[in-house]
Design goal:
mainly alpha, LeuE-type, membrane, cell membrane, transmembrane, LysE family translocator
Length: 206
């Protein structure tokens, strides 16, 4: 069991540190609202992963993979949500530019940060399929499927939280520079385009 856990942890660590939507979301949230909101966004992402891990362990993600309609509905919903987030970021950047970079930005609450992390994760069906395809490969012979799958999911979540904590610390340390109006506007534009790109890629995938 120990060797299986270590092997899975190594693979999950590589997946975790690969730059993607979660990295962009945590960095943007930290710059916009501070370390607390960044950590809450990471907690939302972790909660979504826990839901997907439980669904995979119970065999529910197999239904998602088998049903083209269910997968497509979730995929399109997730793509629309990401495009909406990206559009919001670009609109805020445009407002700031129109006001000389000094337009006030609504405070980002901890609840909103957590909700964004959770919903973004839950509306990504690729995570469910990822768990369904990856976890069984590391299950030792004779090990309980549900309990071991949940253990693997918890390992992945722990690694994700540790990585997000590092991102939050780094972004928090550089927040004074990143929060300058011109830099923040540029960051909003970059993250807005990135979110829209993630959304369009999710919509185009099958």
């Amino acid at each position: 069991m120990l060797s299986a856990c270590l092997a899975f942890a190594a693979v999950a660590a590589l997946v975790t540190i690969t730059p993607g939507l979660d990295t962009m979301l945590v960095l943007r949230t930290t710059v916009a609202g501070g370390r607390r909101t960044g950590l809450l966004a990471a907690a939302g992402i972790a909660s979504g992963l826990l839901c997907w891990g439980a669904a995979s362990a119970a065999g529910l993600t197999a239904l998602l993979a088998a049903s083209r309609f269910a997968f497509d509905v979730l995929r399109i919903a997730g793509a629309c949500y990401l495009v909406w987030l990206g559009g919001q970021a670009l609109w805020r950047a445009r407002r700031k530019a129109g006001a000389g970079g000094d337009a006030p930005e609504p405070d980002l609450s901890g609840a909103a940060a957590y909700r964004t992390g959770l919903v973004t994760n839950l509306l990504n069906p690729k995570i469910g399929v990822f768990y369904m395809s990856l976890l069984p490969q590391f299950l030792p012979a004779g090990a309980p499927v549900f309990g071991t799958s949940m253990l693997f999911a918890v390992i992945h979540i722990a690694e994700g939280l540790a990585w997000c904590a590092l991102l939050v610390c780094a972004a928090g340390a550089a927040r004074r520079t990143l929060a300058r109006p011109s830099v923040k506007r540029r960051l909003q534009q970059v993250t807005g385009i990135a979110f829209i790109g993630f959304g369009l890629r999710l919509a185009a995938e099958h």
